[in-house]
Amino acid sequence: MIKILIVEDEEKIARFLELELMHEGYEIMKANNGRIGLEIAEKEEADLVILDVMLPELNGLEVLRRLRKSSDIPVIMLTARDAVMDKVSGLDAGADDYITKPFAIEELLARIRTALKKRVITPKKETDILKCGLLSLDKLRHKVMYDNTEIELTNREFVLLQILLENKNIVLTRDMLMEKVCGYNYVGETNVIDVYVRYLRTKIDNIFGIKIITTVRGVGYVIKDEEK
Q: DNA-binding region at which residues (predicted)?
């Protein structure tokens, strides 16, 4: 059974979500403050977190930042705020989606289904070090190295490279990558993934004379087991 953690300090909302999600067949865990929510998220095998932004003890964004140091569990931010910068902050901190109160339960359920599907793209690995030849990516230290040389990447470049490394030999479409790298609510240039792939090639392939990311014409991108 899929487990969902609800971190929400408003009891009526938390209870409403609990009943609706249980009705849909999910197993529910709850926390009414950020510190407890973080502890549960780190210790329990939840499949998704619904995380309010305005929480006592630790706010939702801080919970998310700390959680992302050790976990890629899908997180949907839930808040009364609707300012663009608040949404951007949540997505940049690693949220998979963002929904504003008040909301229709049908919309939240749809976003939960989408977030759970996206998790298939980035399965958990036994190691926090991802490798392709001499290239290595350290998820916890947020560091990329080629042999003994560190490569400076932006957050989105890092996330894109991580997703591709976690799914070696699997061709990922541009849409799949865009949702994971830029967020469900991304509004902007549709070729953003092509742009970031070009940035990665400039910083890795061009510098070290290798070919890490392969283009699959008309589909997307893939990193194969061995660099060429």
A: 127-225
- C-alpha closest to that of 171 among 111, 226, 214, 128: 214
**What's the confidence (pLDDT) of residue 228?**
43
CATH 3.40.50.10240 holds for 3-121: no
Could you tell me which of 43, 13, 40 has the C-alpha nearest to residue 29?
A: 40
Q: What is the pTM of this model?
A: 0.54
**Cα 204 to Cα 200: distance, rounded to the nearest angstrom:** 6
According to CATH, what is the number of the domain 129-223?
Answer: 1.10.10.10
CB of 181 within 8 A of CB of 174? Answer: no
d(CA 146, CA 204): 8
Alpha-carbon distance of 133 to 5, in angstroms, equals: 38
Q: Find out whether 14 and 32 touch, Cβ atoms under 8 Å.
A: yes
Q: Is the separation of the CB atoms in 200 and 160 below 8 Å?
A: yes
Contact 59, 53 (CB under 8 A): yes
The Cα–Cα gap between 207 and 153 comes to 14
